[in-house]
Amino acid sequence: MSLENLCKLIEEGDAEEAKVLTEKLLKDGVNPLEMIDSLTKTMAHVGDLFAKLDIFLPEIMLSGEALSAAVEILAPYLEAAGGREVKGKVVLGVVKGDLHEIGKNIVKLILETNGFIVKDLGYNVDSLQFVKEAEAMGADFIASSSLMTTTMPRQLEIIEILNSKGIRDNYKVVIGGAPTSQMWADKIGADLYCYDAKSAPELFSAVLAGK
User: Fold this and answer.
1) b/e map of 60-73 (b: 16 or more CB within 10 Å)?
2) Does CATH number 3.90.1150.10 belong to domain 3-80?
3) What residue ranges do the domains of the chain occupy?
4) How far, in Å, CA of 46 to CA of 31, rounded?
5) Strand locations in the chain (E)
6) I want to staple 66 with a disulfide (CB 3.0 to 4.6 A). Which of 18, 39, 56, 150 is the partner?
7) Would the CATH topology of 3-80 be identical to that of 88-208?
8) One-letter-per-residue 3-state SS of 152-207
9) What distance lies between CA 207 and its chain's CA centroid?
10) 12: CB partners within 8 A, 6+ apart
11) Which CATH number fits domain 88-208: 3.90.230.10, 3.40.50.280, 3.40.30.10, 3.40.50.1220?
């Protein structure tokens, strides 16, 4: 059984078998960083399949659970390998009035497998809660997803709260979600428009580097 087989199990959403094979591959001496790299690419591929409607919500959720199961086994090895340096801290959630969180869940998994610490607030999150959680965590990023045009103003509300508290410069504000755009990000003064899940680590890192 190989790393390729593990990727297949993740894609198929077989969490139990993925855990068993992850443990076996580690015992066989496969590099945990190499495993994470392959699994991240697999999840990005699954995200593409979902975007093209080749698979649907239940399949991608199962893949996410299988990935989480594998990452749980890998985490201590990654820390031991020194490849788990924290790249940034992220508060992540879906804005109030919005109940769709699959995209947010994929972003969370991909960020976590790329060295970010993510506090997932879930969905239907009040704008003030994003700010409070970011303060409590000492976050670098406040990332909100909106999946409906009617809830997009909540993303602006987060920035308004930061401004009113005089702490806007303490955080990088990230927005995403189907109806959002670079134009909307520019209009509300967000630091980053995250257009898809697989690009998130690269985009987040670039913002921190001031690019």
Assistant:
1) bebbbbbbbbbbeb
2) no
3) 3-80, 88-208
4) 23
5) 88-94, 116-120, 141-145, 172-176, 192-193
6) 18
7) no
8) CHHHHHHHHHHHHCCCHHHCEEEEECCCCCHHHHHHHCCCEECCCHHHHHHHHHHH
9) 15
10) 62, 63, 66
11) 3.40.50.280
| pTM for this prediction | 0.70
| Structure-token match 């985009």, residue found | 203
CB 138 within 8 A of CB 90: no
Run of H or E residues at 139:
none
> Which residue type is seen at 168?
R
